[in-house]
Write a structure and sequence with these properties.
Layout lengths: L8 E6 L2 H11 L5 E5 L2 E8 L2 E7 L5 E5 L11 E5 H4 L6 H12 L2 E7 L4 H13 L7 E2 L7 H9 L7 H33 L11 H17 L4 E11 L2 E7 L7 H11 L4 E13 L7 H12 L3 H13 L19 H8 L6 H8 L31 H18 L3 E12 L2 E12 L3 H4 L18 E13 L8 H10 L8 H10 L3 E2 L4 E2 L1 H13 L6 H15 L5 H21 L1 H18 L2 E4 L6 E7 L4 E6 L8 E3 L5 E8 L6 E6 L6 E4 L6 H7 L7
Parallel strand pairs: 1-4, 1-7, 7-8
Antiparallel strand pairs: 2-3, 3-4, 5-6, 9-10, 9-14, 10-13, 11-12, 11-14, 12-13, 15-16, 17-18, 18-19, 19-20, 21-22, 22-23
Helix pairs in contact: 1-5, 4-6, 6-18, 6-19, 6-20, 9-10, 9-15, 10-13, 11-12, 17-20
Length: 696
């Protein structure tokens, strides 16, 4: 307490500690004076002869909670409470709460410098009203944490915060709480009342519809029946290069018809009957919005959407890129393109590319159609990375090259289609090449296109037939979602927000509703959706979720208010849960069976070699260690040790050497591997020598 200044001052509040340092450094006329209370830093500065203190929250300092805890549902009687009072995980936020409370005592005015989005506005509104006991504050608007942008933001700050945005954010949190706590409590109590078994279940306003999309895909895959078809492949040779062509019919659904074609072409000559060439301009890519960055980072680096957001957020806080939680893929003219490119050119890796762009008469990005009221597309600020991780540097390079590519010229590509005639049976070979690289050279090595060059053929040219073969094929089921494609589909359907979609998918994994990188709904996930569809379909109805998303947009636009949206939601939930309670026992039994089956799927590795039991992955809390044991314990005490400090999962495979079950061993920062549980397996010593497994 002693080191808090006694004279009055302006108090600027940031969302995160790193942002407070950036703002203090940008605005201070001298070096900022760093002070701290209970390990929480804040900064004293002088700007234009005015004393200012810059302090920070740690994200949300408040959370929603029931006013009177109960086992009833639906839940509507809720209030904002300090996060540290609600959760052990949030205990650390108390010191941030206390520091802001102390600093506000002598503050003459308040400035909101939290992230410029719906969450940042709500975070500050709660701090302003519940800690500062005020309703008046100014607002700094910025998209980067560079010195220039922060000075301009402070100089041109608005006289009030965006209350409609904060109200929309509050409505979202309350709706999510109504849905989440009510539905999760209903599912948990249904199992308990039906079976006396306590199993915490959860779903939510967006989580339910997201899971339904994955389950619907699983249903499509399971219902799919493959159909056989045939293709005829021709391989000819010209100029010492093989050319592959396929019969113009494409898929033959009648094998007999395909065999007749094979017969007609036997021992016949091949010649080029037609040749088509077409050039086209391939436009540069749009600058990144958050979703397209997440999708591209997964395609190129296999970095998950959730991790990509975390990395991008850290790059923003370091001042290296602009704010990443944006829906826009447009760079407005207000951004000083030339200055940013010139700064990037000071990094040797980008110098030649930047020089090429700066030689253009006009710098115009290839903007997309998506907009965001608060932020432009993601772009590099020009500040150089310093001590960044390998993944951070990868994401940074991707953003820089995408930005550079968006300013470049179109690439010119040429497609070539060749018709090859063998006794009036036509086969088609296709190729595509790049004639002018254009933006390709700026986005290298992330270009997703391949060169498929054909030799320089001409019409009526004879070709040497190497082989004509009949290919047996069958139609394939729909592909499962990946962590990136599900994010894209959620955005297309208007479910969730740019910042929450990746977190929602991560939650589905944690709750064991889905599994594997190619996202597969577990039995628990399928049964949960089947049960909710049958007894309370509104909970997983994407149309209803989308409806409320639009209503929250209307709150931002001052067309609706928070109270009328919440009242509408209450009526729907009261009606929904009345029907749920009438079927509670049926729901509980169904979910309990699904839980048990899913647990078995995720723990049973095979049959016990000593009895009729199953060998299951078991976790010892005492030793903080996984091991494999027989399900018939204590009658059968058969156990097997597995590598320490690793996550162990079934593989449904057996060792080729000894026939014992193989388990998957997953260790942080290392490549997963399959491990035979039999300690006497002959392969063990070889694995140890090569450091594939840990020595016991």
């Amino acid at each position: 307490m002693k080191n808090i200044v006694k004279m009055s001052y302006q108090l600027i509040t940031c969302e995160k500690p790193m942002a407070s340092l950036k703002i203090a450094t940008a605005l201070s006329e001298t070096k900022p004076v760093k002070k701290s209370i209970s390990g929480v830093a804040y900064y004293e500065i002088v700007h234009n002869n005015r004393k200012i203190i810059i302090a920070s929250a740690a994200g949300h300092l408040f959370t929603l909670a029931e006013k009177n805890k109960s086992n009833q549902y639906p839940v509507f009687d809720i209030e904002w409470v300090p996060a540290y009072k609600s959760s052990k995980k949030a205990k650390f936020t108390k010191k941030f709460y206390d520091v802001l409370k102390m600093l506000s005592k002598n503050s003459e005015s308040h400035v909101n410098a939290c992230d410029v989005d719906i969450e940042g506005e709500l975070i500050f509104k709660n701090i302003l009203e519940l800690i500062y006991s005020s309703k008046k504050a100014s607002r700094m608007y910025f998209s980067t944490l560079t010195k220039e942008d922060l000075i301009n933001s402070y100089k041109n700050m608005k006289s009030d915060i965006n209350y409609s945005l904060a109200e929309a954010g509050e409505t979202r949190h309350i709706l999510d709480y109504y849905w989440g706590i009510s539905t999760s409590r209903a599912l948990t109590l249904a199992i308990k009342n039906a079976t006396k078994y306590h199993k915490i279940m959860s779903t939510g306003r967006v989580q339910g519809p997201a899971l339904k999309l994955i389950v619907d895909k699983e249903r499509e895959i399971k219902a799919f029946k493959s159909t056989p078809y045939w293709e005829i492949e021709l391989i000819v040779k010209y100029a010492n290069k093989n050319v592959i062509a396929f019969h113009k019919e494409g898929k033959f659904w009648d094998k007999g018809k395909a065999l007749l074609v094979i017969e007609r072409t036997k021992d016949k000559k091949a010649k080029v009957s037609k040749l088509y060439k077409k050039q086209y301009a391939q436009s540069p890519p749009h600058p990144f919005d958050l979703t397209s960055l997440q999708i591209e980072a997964y395609r190129v680096f296999k970095i998950s959407p959730k991790e990509t957001l975390e990395i991008a957020q850290n790059l923003y806080l370091l001042g290296i890129i602009s704010y990443p939680r944006t829906s826009s893929n447009q760079l407005p003219p207000s951004i000083n393109y030339k200055k940013i490119l010139s700064l990037l050119g000071q990094q040797s890796i980008y110098k030649k590319l930047v020089d090429d762009l700066l030689n253009k008469e006009k710098l115009t990005p290839n903007n997309g159609k998506k907009t965001d009221p608060a932020h432009p597309a993601i772009y590099p600020t020009g500040e150089s990375p310093k001590k960044n991780s390998e993944k951070e540097l990868k994401i940074y390079d991707l953003i820089v090259k995408r930005t550079l590519a968006s300013f470049a010229e179109s690439a010119i590509r040429e497609t070539v289609n060749v018709e090859i005639d063998i006794n009036s049976e036509i086969f088609i070979a296709s190729g595509v090449t790049t004639l002018k690289k254009g933006w390709h050279q700026f986005y290298n090595p992330y270009i997703p296109f391949k060169e498929e060059e054909l030799p320089n053929l001409a019409e009526n040219q004879e070709l040497n037939i190497q082989e004509i073969k009949l290919l047996d094929k069958e139609t394939q089921p729909p592909k499962r979602y990946t962590p990136a494609s599900i994010i894209k589909d959620l955005e297309k359907r208007g479910l969730g927000t740019k910042a929450t979609r990746s977190v929602i998918i991560d939650t589905l994994y944690q709750r064991h509703y889905v599994q594997n990188e190619s996202i597969e709904a577990t039995n628990l996930g399928i049964k949960t959706i089947e049960t909710l569809e049958k007894f309370c379909s509104e909970i997983v109805d994407g149309n209803l979720t989308r409806h409320f998303e639009k209503e929250m947009d209307q709150i931002q636009e001052l067309k609706k208010n928070e109270q009328e949206v919440l009242e509408e939601a209450k009526k729907i939930l009261i009606k929904t849960f009345k029907r749920f309670k009438e079927n509670e026992i049926k729901i509980g039994k169904s979910l309990s069976e699904a839980n048990i089956q899913t647990q078995n799927e995720q723990s049973i590795v095979g049959k016990c070699n000593l009895c009729a039991g199953n060998l299951k992955i078991t976790y010892s809390k005492k030793n903080s260690q996984y091991f494999v044991a027989c399900s018939k314990y204590p009658e059968c005490k058969n156990t097997f040790s597995v590598p320490k400090k690793a996550l162990i999962k079934p593989t449904n495979k057996v060792c080729n050497e000894c026939g014992f079950p193989l388990v998957a061993v997953i260790r942080k920062g290392k490549r997963p591997f399959e491990y035979c549980i039999n300690m006497g397996c002959n392969l063990k010593e070889e694995w140890r020598k090569n450091n594939i497994i840990l020595k016991s």
